[in-house]
Amino acid sequence: MADTTLWAELLAFGTGLALSPIHLGVLLLLLLGPKPIQRGSWFVTGWIVTTLVTVILLLTVGHSLVLDMTQGSHHRTALDLLGGGALISLGLKELLRSFAAGEEQPAWTHTIERFINLPLPLLIAVGALTELISPDDLFLFAKTSAVVLAASLPSWQEIVGLVFFTFGSSLLLLIPLVAVIIGRERVIPLLQSGKQILFAKGDLIVGGVSFALGAYLGWQGISGLTIVI
Question: Rounded to whole angstroms, how far apart are CA atoms 178 and 174?
């Protein structure tokens, strides 16, 4: 049976993936615009499907290549060190940009305001592509697959783990969507406040999450090196 450490890691990686200011910002704008439930539901569905399919493909490739992802293995140590270094660099860059910008909104906020005017199928496709090309997301996908491979779980537990990760990565999108479905008029002020905070502090969120994840991966990579030595 998988231990609680594995589930905690999957939840942590899923939460890291969920803290995507671009996708959260797009969803909030959709929920504040016309046809909020229809457009918001399709957008969140696209996120969930993209997340689940990506980790399934990575896990399938890992099994077919018989990759050793135990602590201290060359594959896992390299992934942790490379991922940790890249994420720490990205995190520092975003944090410095956030402090330099002050009260000015990040440039990506103007981009997503144009995104929501796209036809819904194209908007979902752009959302999926953005998720797949984000450095943070790529390493989180790879790390999730790595820890599941290292656990050597039976197939049904692997499925449960991937569903658990996907749910964790979607929770921040599902909460506002469900709130709008239950009673949109009552939550509109909260959505507007959330959008203002997200647009003002988006770079700070990205930088903080990237730095924290990078530090964690770096620590695991260094631990792997000590095992090898």
Answer: 6
